[in-house]
Amino acid sequence: MTRENDQCVAAAAGVVVEACEESVKEVREFVGGWFGAHHYSSDLAYLARTVVTELVTNALRHACDPGDPITVRVMLSDAGPVIEVEDGSDAQPVVQPLTLDETSGRGLAMVELMTLAWGVRARGGGGKVVFAVLDAG
What we know:
Helix 1 runs antiparallel to helix 2 and helix 2 runs antiparallel to helix 3. The chain contains three helices and six strands, in the order ββααββαββ. It is an alpha+beta fold. The chain has one domain: Heat Shock Protein 90. It has a six-stranded antiparallel beta sheet with strand order 1-2-3-4-6-5. The two termini are 21 Å apart.
């Protein structure tokens, strides 16, 4: 167990994938398996799979070149389960305004609505970690 941002963190697990469309399915299954192993409801596991899909897709589209590594971590914290997506880009994710005529660009707005909190922190050697905290209560 470690302390991260003054939160008690435990039961961390992670996977590193290549930046490609096929990796989205892999991280979705990884996150779903973690939530199942920790006996969370199927509804929360579905929500977690949706959140990680949006975060990894955002990294693929805006932060990575094909083949770049993307690290996905899931852990328990005092606030609730946390999903992290780490990439090598310093580009910050931006929530786009919601409009009725757009067919894409809603991912982070969805993440904002589906989670207790989300945010970004810089990595020391470059890159960033985008995280989302889910409500397990």
